[in-house]
Amino acid sequence: MAARVFAESAQLMTMTDIAELASVQRPVVTTWRRRHADFPAPGGKDESQLLFDPREVAAWLLATRRISRERADEELSLFMLTGLAPRYEGPDVIAAVTALLCVRFLAGESEPLFDGAGDPVAAIRALARSIDPNDRVVLTEIHSIPLTAGWLIRQVDDLVEASWTCQAAFERTMAARHRFGGGPLSTAAVAQALARLIAELSGAAERARRGIPLLVADPAAGPGDLLVAVAGVLGPDHRPVVTAAEADPVLARLLRRRLLVNGIAEHDLEVRTGTELPDGPAAPDVIVTQIPYQPGEARDAEAVLNAVDDVAVRLSAGRFGVVLGPASVLAGDFAPYSAEERARADLLAADMVEAVIRLPGGLVPFRPGYQTALWVLTQARDSRWRGRYSWRTSPTGSSPTR
Question: What is the domain partition of the chain in residue ranges?
């Protein structure tokens, strides 16, 4: 029966794939082929490049101690999944993969999604209906998996086994979103190091160490890179309550799945599809957010500054917010006496800006030319820094400093 079909992969690796597997630059692979007679022979060729059997490549890398067994297993399972993704007949392979990971996590994660008996897609649809009868996180995505895509379920199980946990598998998938053709999911990505910096600047870990329950908010959450980073610095012993908004309904559902798999309990998670945070009785303890990207020619400085102000007014005493946005607005030059300059000066004079950090390029991976900056905000009316702002001019432009 067609529904029982599993695609036995004939996926072959390019030399670029080999470089990614081995965490080296592409020319290094060429050098290995030239210097080592035992390097695997090509198993095929497409229009422009040689192709190699991934298992033979992994075996050679292991034998020559260029990668660990753990990395080989993880990367091979991910490669097989991304390699098969172009054959997927459903509407969104990232949605399907993350939904399968979420279903396995919610079902207990220790058992595979498919045990080899019966129709794999029918079985996973029935499981999704029992787990998510109100279709809050996975049911739509699971029902979109074609009946002929049983292979996808097995590959997701392989990825979980290689990664040890559903959470690790989910985050590996998110880190490789571009290899799935992630579209809007990729363009909203934030470099992991930057997400970690934002989480640490937010003060979340310090409050958690004092035993204070945390409410963490993001009014433009996207796929949740910043919220996951905050959960990461808090650790499993200090899971926060999370409230978020995301205008794209597809991303909002993915965000719910991601946070659930990262250990945020469903009753501690509220994600609104829209541009406004859900109303709640308590003010957020931590706000982390990224101003949605706009190209320079269409960038509205007033809207960016209004978004920063919206974060600031939600903060109560001792709470912090960190905003990632365009450096041209947050730390660049404006025409003297312009409306933009006055609006930014008003925010700085309100004594809620603790720090302004102009960042190097490349920290928003899929927009390498996009220069960004951070504003760290608090309700700081009694700050010792009150009124002590100045402007520093550097080769990259002027920026406000303490």
Answer: 2-182, 192-401
Give the highest mean pLDDT range of 47-56, 103-112, 128-137, 379-388. Answer: 128-137
Residue 34 has pLDDT above 60, yes or no: yes
- Check: CB of residue 196 under 8 Å from CB of residue 231: no
Burial per residue of 354-391, b for 16 or more beta-carbon CB atoms within 10 angstroms, e otherwise? bebbbbeeebbbebeebbbbbbbbbbbeeeeeeeeeee
For 270, the token pair is: 């509220």
Choose among 257, 252, 258, 268: nearest CA to 225. Answer: 258
Q: What percent of the chain has pLDDT over 70?
A: 91
Residue 384 scores a pLDDT above 60:
no
pTM of the full predicted structure? 0.83
CATH superfamily of 192-401: Vaccinia Virus protein VP39 (3.40.50.150)
